[in-house]
Amino acid sequence: MKIWIVWLPNVWKSTLFNALTKNYSAEAANFPFCTIEPNVWIVNVNDSRMQKISDTVNAQKIIPATVEFTDIAGIVKWASKWEGLWNKFLANIREADAILQVVRVFENSDIIHVHWDVNPQSDIEVINSELILADIESLEKRINNNSRKAKSDKDLAMQLDLFEKVKKFLEEGNLAISYDYSEEELELMKDSHLLTYKPFVYAANVNEENMDISEEELRKILNIQDKNIKVVAVCAKLEEDMVEMSQEEKNDFLTDMWLKTTGLDELIKTCYDALWLQYYFTAWEKEVRAWTMKKGSTAPQAAWVIHTDFERWFIKADVVNCVDFVELWGWSKAREAGKVSMQGKDYIVQDWDVILFKFNV
Q1: Residue 72 reports pLDDT greater than 70
Q2: What pTM was computed for the model?
Q3: What is the dihedral of CA 162, 163, 166, 171, to 10 degrees?
Q4: At 191, is the secondary structure helix, strand, or coil?
Q5: Which domains does the chain have, with CATH numbers?
């Protein structure tokens, strides 16, 4: 999963993601395109269930799910006028599975906003406008280059007709992902490669006292009504304070702040949801591991994640809820208690599943 970060200068993005990765090597300058050569971080997904499962089977190691975050560049108004750098930016960001926008909501007189006023809605509009302009240009080229061919190609004609509708939608200031597509149109959009058709996540950088803000209130502040677009509150200052803490100290700190989890942990989970992803567990003495898959995957499709041939060789899967697995101390007792079910090819894998696959090799 590749998440590419876009932002305006002075939103404390570097502080936030240095805290996320527990290193301080990222460029922290506050001017546009200071990180045009991308910084890439592979970040573990923290899940307390994994340690409990590991203790249950006395595993030698834990391999969590991961997210790849790429910090590409700060954007300012009229960024597209910086032609050379802008084209490089576009070439890079088209590789993203999803786009994460870090938006400043906090007030701090010592940190001057690039537009001299903290207005998250305006900031979002600046970034989105540049991405929308790039998408309009991309669609215009696709339409112009294929209009003749579409006269004799029915499928292409249908696609170009949809592109015309989406272009008009974009020209009204909307993101392509917010368009109301039919099932047939979703198929036609698969190779559109539009930036604003990618899943969007907004990380609102708030003050410590606003970390418990509700999603509904945060959506109002950011003016994000589309439920397909994810929003999450984070506090860079708070995350920075927790970097050097032990897990026990961090838990006590969160309890004192009346928080259940860190904003960054919540951000990673939100990115998973935006891409319609989840993971299941495998557990034995050698390792406990989380395997990422699309939500709604069948057991053979989930097995494919481990090895591409496993889908073809799949026979069955022994499945147990991770809570039962931990409480009953592993496979043997869970089977005795009747908590392990034998599932076939139609089983839809769940987020809490611990699975043992059986194959005919």
Answers
A1: no
A2: 0.81
A3: -150
A4: coil
A5: 2-47+64-116+198-274 (3.40.50.300), 128-196 (1.10.150.300), 296-359 (3.10.20.30)
